Amino acid sequence: MNSLKKSEEIDPLHKWIGTYNSRLRNILRFFKWLYSPILAHNQRLKSKLLLNVSQLRRKEASIYKPTDLWALEDDIVFLKWC
User: Fold this and answer.
1) Counting C-beta atoms within 10 Å of the first and last residue's C-beta, which end of the chain has fewer, N or C?
2) Calpha distance 21→17 (Å, rounded)
């Protein structure tokens, strides 16, 4: 999982954190199923191997920049054609 971490210069928006959390969820699901396949998915406990591994928090409030949002001209074109 540490191979997913990227430096600030390479990934200034910290998009690697979303990939890290996504892969961690898949690994947790797999190990929960592996150690207790008979139980329902909501009754399975976290594996002892992964007890101290937790998801990371995003460093930005939002990954979207103001330039990613529509401008007034975009809204007008959308409303004209829809």
Assistant:
1) C
2) 6
56 half-sphere exposure, CB direction, 13 A CA radius = 18
Q: Report the alpha-carbon distance of residue 28 to residue 68 in Å, rounded.
A: 33
**Amino acid (one-letter) located at 12:** P
| Cα distance between residue 30 and residue 28, in whole Å | 5
Check if the beta carbon of residue 32 is closer than 8 Å to that of residue 43: no
pLDDT single digits (tens) 38-72: 999 889 988 888 888 889 998 888 778 788 888 88
Tokens of 17: 């954190």
CA dist 52 → 5, 47, 58 (Å): 18, 10, 19
